Fold this protein.
Amino acid sequence: MNEQEINRRRTFAIISHPDAGKTTLTEKLLLFGGQIQVAGAVKSNKIKKTATSDWMDIEKQRGISVSTSVMEFDYRDYKVNILDTPGHQDFCEDTFRTLTAVDCAIIVIDGAKGVEAQTRKLMTVCRMRKTPVIVFINKMDREGRDPFDLLDEVESELQIKVRPLSWPINQGQRFKGVYNIYEQRLNLFTPNKQMVTETVAVDIHSKELDNQVGTEDAQKLREDLDLVEGVYPEFDVSTYLSAEVAPVFFGSALNNFGVRELLDCFVEIAPSPRPTQAEERTVEPTEPKFTGFIFKITANIDPNHRSCTAFCKVCSGKFVRNAPYLHTRQGKTVRFSSPTQFMAQKKSTIEEAYPGDIVGLPDNGIFKIGDTLTEGEPLHFKGLPSFSPEMFKYIENTDPMKTKQLSKGIDQLMDEGVAQMFINQFNGRKLIGTVGQLQFEVIQYRLENEYNASCRWEPVSLYKACWIESDDETELDAFKKRKYQYMAKDRDGRDVFLADSNYVLQMAQQDFKHIKFHFTSEF
Ligand code: G4P
């Protein structure tokens, strides 16, 4: 029974650079899953890129992201779990962490823009974790780039081999459809039709192809497909599953074109829940006992009622409501009487959940990102390392009567993974590191609203925070003495060097050859 449930699950995230069409594609997938009836239902789940300090939008994002953090639906015999990731790049760490809970990913690329910065960054995480990816090249209804050029770019920029499984017939105004290589069918494009795509089984060498798309385009398609077959090795699911090859689809999410083909192929080839690596051992999804880990914590928006939802990915066994589980970091037994699952924008209490599922657990401050739950085994799942932040500011208390509130607030927000905190060893000040300005604004706003604490920021110009280690104690001591003003500790008490420029860092690396400088917290 368990095995059957595991095999039918597909847990994944859609990742892209902002504006490539992630929200639109998500919405179309939900339409196919019958979860929403109208287009437009998921639209608001993002912060408008221009209004960076509009509190309403941030609040909206946080509120909505609780209910749309996971979207589940049944499609054919499969249970599909889409893990939502924030649209705004200032929250990309949240996306990194969500990627620890997925078994595969779909990457959306704008056909006119090609591979963009955020996609590159997210793909680095997929590569680190050997997550299988499928690429969807979107917006084919617009004038874009040559498909072969795009594929070359994906290969070189994302450092993964590609294999097209569909092929576009023209693009922009002249876009006629795609030939589905995977199913060997011709799918004709009809703009603005929301649900229907006409699919015709056509032998590409037959005259029928000419009748359908015209002689010129038929000829071009035959030539393109010949080239595709010549250049790319035949598609082999095992190379996709081992994350060596990314199958590529072309389409237009807005016009609902190529989406069903993507979904049909996806459910067939995408992996069911994979084994999860714990520090102690590898955990197989088919093991009878429940294990899971927390990959995301989201605060609710009601300021008078501070409560969070912790998202737990089930790794093995079966999660059961009210069963006693071991919170391994705290060594405590915990029970959950109202675990939730998510159906588009609805939340409902569940009795049980299987590997691959995401369970929402009410959290009043007991969880940290990365925490493990088991039936008693002292396991610790490996999370994703923290990356060096890109922006740094000292956080200063502006109300001496509220020192306690501030420090509690900071601690809990850091547990949620909102940002990283370092303590400067020279002046004892708390340094907050983020990847974007918006995170500082959210922190300040939440400290005021949820903890009744007030703070101000003091910018510091730093290039990177590097975790340092060495076998040579004397050299490490000498380094720490020389750089005493720039030494800090992370929240786990590890040594961190705050380099204020690339030059300083290079000099340090040159002068202290036995010290290793790491840009991620796990090494
Ligand atoms: P994101 O979540 O990745 O940030 O992207 P989102 O889906 O919000 O799409 C960004 C913009 O691209 C939207 O337009 C959306 O309508 C458009 N778009 C998505 N897919 C396609 C497509 O296949 N073809 C074309 N031509 N456009 C597409 P917008 O103007 O920013 O928003 P809206 O006013 O349409 O809601």
About this structure: The first strand starts at residue 9 and ends at 16. Residues 16, 18-24, 43, 46, 87, 138-139, 141-142, 252-255 surround guanosine-5',3'-tetraphosphate (CB under 6 Å).
